[in-house]
Amino acid sequence: MLRIVSLALLTALAACSSEPMRGLQALFQQSKGAAALSAGLRQYEDGQYVQAAKNLQGALDQGLSDAQSARAHKHLAFIHCASGRERPCRNEFRKALTFAPSLELAPSEAG
Predict the structure, then answer these.
(1) Alpha-carbon distance 43 to 57, whole Å?
(2) What is the pTM of this model?
(3) Is the distance from CB of 78 to CB of 93 less than 8 angstroms?
(4) How far is residue 32's CA from residue 46's CA, in Å, rounded to a whole number?
(5) pLDDT (tens digit, 9 = 90+) per residue, 45-96?
(6) Which residues make Cβ contacts (< 8 Å) with residue 54, sequence separation at least 6?
(7) Using a CB cutoff of 8 Å and minimum separation of 24, what contacts does 100-108 make?
């Protein structure tokens, strides 16, 4: 029911092109890279880091929201760090912070 109401609201607002309306519309639209991001995160959790990195980068290339981009870059950083690639690790964390300046690692992620 909520999904139907949301869809109706989004459709009604589709004709509006003001900045606040575009921001509201963006909340309901899924980014182009969302499917690849989801696959990459699932592969990361399963320890399939090579394939996860490909999907995470693909998701970034396809387009993600700022929050999703921060998450993708953070996981790419973890993959580089775990592989001993310090420079790419730092670069990915920097990129993550550009999308989410208040990004903090969970205690289980730190170190």
Answers:
(1) 13
(2) 0.72
(3) no
(4) 23
(5) 999 999 999 999 999 999 999 999 999 999 999 999 999 999 999 999 999 9
(6) 40
(7) 100/66, 100/67, 100/70, 103/70, 103/74
Cα–Cα distance list, 8 to 11, 25, 26, 29 (Å): 5, 12, 15, 13
CA-to-CA distance for 19 and 42, rounded, in angstroms? 34
> Could you give the CA distance from residue 34 to residue 63 in angstroms, rounded to a whole number?
8
Structure tokens at 100: 């989410």
**Residue 37 contacts residue 64 (beta carbons within 8 Å):** yes
**Dist. CA 40–CA 65, nearest whole Å:** 16
